[in-house]
Amino acid sequence: MKNYTGLGLPENILPDPASPDWMNKGDNAWQLAAATLVGMQSIPGLIMLYGGAVKKKWAVNSAFMVLYAFACVLFCWVCWGYQMSFGDTLIPIWGKIDVALEQEYLLKQAFLGKFPNATMVFFQSVFAAITLILIAGALLGRMNFYAWMLFVPLWLTFSYTVGAFSIWSVNGFLSTAGIIDYSGGYVIHLSSGVAGFTAAYWVGPRLTKDRERFPPNNILLMLAGAGLLWMGWTGFNGGDPYVVSVDASLAVLNTHVCAATSLLTWVILDVAFFGKASVIGAVQGMITGLVCITPAAGVVQGWAAIIMGLCSGSIPWFTMMVVHKKFEILQKVDDTMAVLHTHAIAGSLGGFLTGLFADPYLCFLFYSDYKNYVGLFYGFQNGKVHTGLRQIGLQLIGILFVVGLNIVTTSLICVLVQVFVPLRMSDEDMEIGDEAAHGEEAYAIWGQGERHENSRYSTNNDIEMPEPKGRSAGQVEMA
């Protein structure tokens, strides 16, 4: 720590090296809180959602894929991923490889915001992590865990960093052109949806009987995870202005209004066409609403957030319930958590609607620029039709870029990984699930946690198990 005692300054105004003049303590505190909220969407949010939404035999494996991805991404992020996404330009779509660990760098002011680089590195790391975790949703119930261990750092390095630099970095070609992606509709959700669906094609499907019947093992646990995901979106969208501002407040409110509208729309459609309100459908509607508003959260008015919620609750519902069932090519790909519809389609929809509804004044609050960011509807209203059409064009170019990038890179990564390890577990191991993959199970059948005596992985095959009290052995087997 520097010594200021010889400067002749009164003690009450001595500089505080831990709080430099450029740092805003409120902004820094909110940014760290927002990052933690986003982190909790994954750990424990998506651990609980995935762990509860799959068959019992896959609960451990599904949760472990989330846990591993979160840890692996954070390690890779500080070693090379952050600088490749936000550092000095290597090419217009990629930053230079460098670490983000030196004290001198971490304590300096971030490229945007009145807080240190250490805060920005952590904030962006949880966004990168949740993107890989969303990809996992398409692969639950059959991907070889060792293949997943290789896939995560490779995809982060060769796909995520390219999308993040191109769209979010101040030097990226789409960023400088004026694309609007407020908080990751493109970088996170469209990317994960396309990459997840592509990886699902290469990994192959679950067992036929698992595809035909894959009931959640714990709907209440799944709902608890979904609730953490929803509330955590306060940090997801509210943290992206990098300042405690009126725009951050608007982004938070728009986020929750759109999610609620989308959920209600999805439930109404389920009731109208299937005669029952499905809680799983409600969760899907919630997710599509959150995804759809993400590229627009702080740059659209409240009425636009409601319209976006109506669209995100109906269009992905239609593609999932109608279109998907009519096209055999879509059915051939086993997308366990339907990320194609809930993330790719909802993210594309949000990006396009952002091009229609982006309010120039709100864009000024976010970008400090009146010239380039004009939704098409406001272009007609303000006599800037050309600018509005340009915005729509950029939003569509962004969709095509992200789709193409992720189909190509994800395919190449899957082909590379399967050279070293199989992408898919064997049919025999998929019959067993967690015990075959990890030697563990989520819910013990017997009272003290011993494994079932007939398990081929049991260490207690020579131990006589006691008769459960209160139920016959046949009843326990059915349970």
TrEMBL record:
Q: Which GO terms describe its cellular component?
A: plasma membrane
Keyword annotations from UniProtKB, A to Z: Ammonia transport, Membrane, Transmembrane, Transmembrane helix, Transport
Please report the record's description of how this protein sits within the membrane.
Multi-pass membrane protein
Pfam families per record:
Ammonium_transp
Fetch the SUPFAM superfamilies from UniProt. Answer: Ammonium transporter (SSF111352)
GO molecular function per UniProt = ammonium channel activity
Cellular localisation:
Cell membrane
Name the PROSITE patterns for this protein: AMMONIUM_TRANSP
Membrane spanning stretches: 29-51, 63-83, 121-140, 147-170, 182-204, 216-236, 248-272, 279-297, 303-323, 344-367, 396-421
**Region Disordered, annotated ranges:** 451-479
- Ammonium transporter AmtB-like domain location: 29-443
Family label:
Belongs to the ammonia transporter channel (TC 1.A.11.2) family.
Q: Which NCBIfam families does this entry report, sorted A to Z?
A: amt
The entry's protein name is: Ammonium transporter
What does the record give as the organism's lineage? Eukaryota, Viridiplantae, Streptophyta, Embryophyta, Tracheophyta
